[in-house]
Specification:
2 domains; six-stranded mixed sheet; 31% helix; alpha/beta; single chain; 346 residues
């Protein structure tokens, strides 16, 4: 079921982005023409203009005088970047032959104040048995054991859903998990990756098929033109069942995109408790568009919701909300310590 859903989302993205791309016959470097097409693409295909209360017409009025006065491609690139800033979306980026733009505003509140990091990799070893963290070479996957009195917990740190866990990974992780009294699954500072991989890993924490959300795709030029909500399920893993293990999922503001989707899914897993700061969000799938000058512009047109049909674009609230930045200055990761404390109650 989930393979079909993820494939359908990618297919929808391709259909929408190609519609405009096919109208571009040859390179055109006229700034005003490029800006007008850029503005129309966002106006008709970006899925969150109304949800975020963005006045895209006002953005056009603000930027057009600058477009008409622009003398160089570098100036024009800055203008488009300033327009994209209004979207406040980490799934938005732009690529030209000389520069790239990306948006990381999910790390900041509306006043520009950075959210607490709540993560310091250098502190992890102090909590591990024998002070060792094991990981395969060139991998985003790390694992270790944490001892607490007569109890042992499996600690798994996963910093990117961009490469599947190998058979050897699972062999060693299972050797830790099988004898553990609980799991600490740490995805802090995980910016996302492969959505299907994320749902497959989430499936290890379920023993039945579970509705975890919905999705919808833009299907017209109106700001609210989109398909009916379609259900999104997580299927239990056929090889690894961790659903009986009490699990603490650690998150922070750096949890984005696929990691945010996994957080959304695991909030419905029966034995999972989420601890940390609110996740960064990213509840959509980015799609590619090309301007007449050849620049690549990427933004989302497909929306994801939780199973209560609420947007997940702005992040997921943890079950236990806590910040640890000041404690980390003192050399303590109190989010890990809280996870150990909660597991000791299970």
């Amino acid at each position: 079921m989930k393979r079909f859903i993820i494939t359908l989302l990618f297919a929808s993205a391709a259909l929408i982005s190609c519609e405009k791309y096919e109208t571009i016959k040859e390179a055109d470097y006229d700034f005003k023409h490029n800006f007008e097409l850029f503005w129309t693409l966002v106006d008709e295909q970006y899925c969150y203009l109304d949800y975020k209360n963005i006045d895209w017409n006002a953005v056009k009025e603000e930027m057009m005088p600058r477009v008409e006065a622009a003398q160089t491609e570098q100036e024009f690139f800055v203008i488009l970047s300033d327009a994209l800033d209004y979207l406040r979306d980490g799934h938005v980026w732009m690529v030209s032959p000389f520069q790239q733009y990306s948006c990381d505003t999910y790390y900041y509140d509306e006043n520009g104040v950075r959210y607490p990091d709540n993560f310091d990799r250098s502190l992890l070893r102090r909590y591990m048995k024998d002070n060792e963290i094991y990981h395969p070479m060139d991998s985003a996957l790390y694992y270790a054991e944490i001892e607490d009195g007569d109890r042992t917990y499996a600690y798994i740190l996963y910093t990117g859903f961009d490469a599947a866990w190998s058979a050897n990974d699972f062999k060693y992780i299972e050797s830790v998990v099988s004898g553990a009294d609980g799991i600490i699954f740490d995805i802090r500072e995980n910016p996302g990756g492969d959505g299907e991989l994320g749902l497959n890993i989430a499936g290890q924490f379920f023993n039945t098929s579970e509705l975890v959300g919905y999705y919808a795709a833009k299907n017209g030029p109106g700001h609210n033109d989109h398909t009916e909500l379609q259900p999104l399920y997580v299927e239990p893993s056929k090889k690894h069942d961790w659903s009986s293990k009490p699990t603490m999922l650690l998150i922070n503001r750096g949890v984005y995109s696929t990691a945010n989707l996994v957080t959304c899914a695991l909030q419905y897993a029966p034995n999972v408790t989420i601890i940390g700061g609110k996740s960064g969000g990213g509840g959509a799938m980015p799609m590619t568009h090309y301007l007449p000058n050849g620049w690549l512009v990427v933004f989302p047109s497909n929306m994801l919701f939780d199973r209560d049909k609420q947007h997940i674009e702005n992040g997921i609230d943890p079950d236990i909300l806590m910040d640890a930045d000041l404690d980390m200055v003192m050399g303590k990761d109190t989010i890990i310590e809280r996870a150990i404390e909660e597991l000791s109650k299970k």
